Amino acid sequence: MPYSVAAFYRFLPLEDLESLRAGLLAFCRERALRGTILIAPEGVNGTVAGEPAAMTAFLAELSRRFALTEEHLRISSASDWPFARMKVRIRPEIITLRDEAGDPTEKTGVHVAPKDWNALIADPGVVLLDTRNRYETKVGIFEGAIDPGIDQFTDFKRYVEEQLDPQKQQKIAMFCTGGIRCEKASAFMLEKGFAEVYQLKGGILSYLEQVPEADSRWQGDCYVFDGRVALGHGLAETDWTACFGCGAPLSAEDRASPEFEEGVSCPVCAGEKSEAEKAALRERHRQMTAGEG
Fold this sequence. Notes:
By secondary structure, this protein is of the alpha/beta class. The protein has nine helices and 15 strands.
């Protein structure tokens, strides 16, 4: 039986975070759920997996605690556990931007449904902007999109301020994995004076789920932050894996590289690891393969 996976977020004021954390963690552990939930004064963000019956109870609990609806959820499946354990963490922000200008409770861009996205980005006057990190864009991206080449979301602010001009690029269409980064990114860009800002409702995951592959303008797969590594059209699992040494997503071509060593290194990190580090990783991989670790 495949596991059900729920990715969710909602911006809403939360209080007594320690009590909330303890309650959520106990609820999830009692039902053998696995994943990560982040809570902050501004809201909740998480991805959790489990058996279907347990997940039904969990979704009801999310609705009770946070008034989450289908609008705030992306549901997919996994053939194996995509997480090793259950974690609930308190953070200053549920998605880290570190800028008060990015406040989605004040304003956000226009939410565009997946079915209307192709028509929007076909407009030659639209600047199509990816808000994700470079290791994610390696796995897949929309045709014609700008990759900002950032290593973390907090770098998005600098990219906008240094590379974009609200007087020249007035119509922006942005996207991210599930929609949450665009909430803050669009609020930030509106505050900086960009006239029209649009965002893909539900993110790439909703687009891949709802838009037929024959009509799709998505190229590649979509990186996800769990053991599945990437999902394709219809939210199907793919053959992407992750490097045990550095966590970088690896395609079949990457794994065929002479710089790839299972459990040790890949083309991204092979030249950065010392022989001592590689030896330690080889021993760890041997222990795991032998069932010792």
